[in-house]
Specification:
The protein is built from five helices and 23 strands. It has about 475 residues and is of the alpha/beta class. The chain folds into three domains: about 200 residues, Collagenase (Catalytic Domain) (3-Layer(aba) Sandwich), CATH 3.40.390; about 90 residues, Immunoglobulin-like (Sandwich); about 90 residues, Immunoglobulin-like, CATH 2.60.40. The longest helix has 17 residues.
């Protein structure tokens, strides 16, 4: 999350001393309200809905990788497991392509940017996460005392450059959402009302009202090392000995893995007693089961597909899956880059049109089946297609007329029906020469068919392999064509 000091390794919730006082005041008020509000039940699992908004440019670029999102939410649940919080997705993922939601690199206007997002895109009763780019920050999440600034609403702003799997920015920002301060809060102050002492001796300590306000988190300073290698001293001259494993610190991601017991207790009290956050308790879930990985069907591995013509991607249905994420990618490993992603609900196929910029390139594709209540999704194997020029006009005439073969896709050996009506012809009196051609130009079916009431049918040879084919025939001065999938 925070490996060096620069604009993109910066959390937007650095509070000045007066703002920290407002956090302390909020906590005191929260304790007073507990007598009439629901108390924290330490044994109760709290399931919290999350609504995700992903913003790209008006040209549809710079979107956050949804596959990374699913991994990150799983990691968020792992980080919050000791708290008893479990986060699940609200259907569906909101994708908005509009330059007005992309930052200008100035971290000082990020709060205004978040307000703009909250005012236009908000789901009541859930933690709203807003992924965008060029914010000048890693992330920010307003504290509960700031809710009036957004009309009682709230949200978490995330920069896509700090949202890779394994990074701790999201758990950190959620900590602010549940009223946790940085562990180094006030360490740059010369006033002992804000700057926390290292000592925990009762007569000398100030940890209950300075720093982050918790005595089981050692006094800390803004530091990025892990392990801590500094020699800074507090206002009493004692050396800092910070806990680099605390998520609310700025120490390196590889060391951060926990919240303290007092931090956990306070976050639960916030959920049970803060008016803007008790709404999370209304939609508790009990199903945490996951789903299996899907199998990819079409196109077959390394199959050639045309650019500028829709390619149909198809995969197996998975029991219990709510949605499927289709990812079409270039590169591999850490260099993998999605060129297209779509969350598909209620379907196991999807069309994508490669542009001619990908001519001659081998492109990967994969599908992730998942449930909204279980972000721990398993990605399918990855298959590849090779993007080629459209087949010759002798096989596929772009000026011709289309028709709809049925069923489509069809199983090998199955029967295909042609329904033909172009608004003019109502009777076909002679057999028609119908051909089926593979993408590589191989003729796999060539037969005269008799039409009755503008319909004809024929059986496929079961030796025809799975793949995409082009069906074509001539009728008078017109050429007819259609794409059909054998699965």
């Amino acid at each position: 999350m925070f490996l060096n000091v620069n604009a993109t390794s910066y959390c937007g919730m650095h509070l000045i001393d007066e703002e920290a006082l407002q956090v302390y005041d909020y906590r005191e008020q929260l304790k007073l309200n507990q007598s009439s509000a629901r108390m924290n039940d330490d044994g109760q699992l709290i399931t919290i809905p999350v609504k995700v908004h992903i913003f790209g440019t008006s040209a549809g670029e710079q979107r956050y990788n949804i596959e990374s999102l699913l991994v990150q939410l799983d990691e968020l649940n792992e980080s919050y497991l000791p708290t008893g919080f479990y986060f699940y997705l609200v259907p569906d993922i909101n994708i908005v392509d509009n330059d007005m939601f992309i930052g200008d690199g100035d971290k000082d206007v990020a709060r205004k940017l978040l307000g703009n997002m909250i005012s236009r895109h908000y789901h009541y009763g859930a933690v709203n996460i807003y992924y965008t780019s060029n914010t000048g920050l890693c992330g920010m999440a307003p504290f509960p005392f700031m809710s009036d600034e957004y009309g009682g609403r709230t949200g978490v702003l995330m920069d896509i450059n700090c949202s890779k799997p394994g990074e701790m920015t999201l758990p950190h920002e959620f900590g602010h959402h549940f009223d946790l301060l940085h562990t180094f809060q006030g360490s740059d102050s010369e006033n002992s009302l804000y700057s926390e002492y290292v000592t925990r001796i009762d007569s000398l300590k100030n940890c209950t009202y300075a720093g982050d306000g918790f005595c089981d988190t050692p006094a800390d300073i803004l530091d990025y090392s892990c392990p801590y290698t500094g020699d800074a001293k507090d206002l009493r001259g004692q050396y800092y000995v910070p806990d680099v494993s605390l998520i609310m610190s700025y120490h390196a991601d590889r060391c951060q893995n926990k919240f303290s017991e007092q931090q956990i207790q306070h976050m639960r009290e916030v959920v049970f007693n803060d008016t803007a956050r008790t709404v999370y308790l209304k939609n508790q879930i009990a199903d945490f089961s996951g789903v299996e990985a899907t199998s990819l069907l079409l196109p077959t591995n390394n199959e050639e597909v045309e650019h500028s013509t829709p390619t149909v991607f198809k995969w197996d249905e998975v029991d219990g899956a709510d949605a499927y994420l289709l990812s079409i990618v270039t590169g591999s490993g850490s260099r993998e880059n999605p060129i297209y992603q779509s969350v598909i609900i209620g379907q196991t196929s999807h069309e994508y049109n490669f542009s001619n910029r990908y001519k001659g390139r081998t492109i990967g594709w994969k599908v992730t089946a998942f449930k909204w209540t279980q972000p721990n999704a398993i990605v399918s194997e990855k298959k590849y297609v090779k993007v080629v020029d459209p087949i010759p006009t002798s096989i596929y005439n772009r000026e011709s007329y289309t028709f709809n073969p049925y069923p489509n896709p069809v199983n090998p050996g199955g029967s295909v029906q042609i329904n033909l009506f172009d608004g003019e012809r109502t009777n076909i009196s002679q057999p028609i020469h119908v051909q089926l051609t593979a993408l590589n130009g191989q003729l796999v079916f060539d037969q005269l068919l008799d039409f009755s009431n503008n319909q004809a049918s024929f059986g496929l040879d079961d030796r025809i392999q799975s793949g995409i084919y082009f069906m074509s025939f001539e009728l008078g001065d017109k050429n007819y064509r259609a794409k059909i999938i054998v699965q």
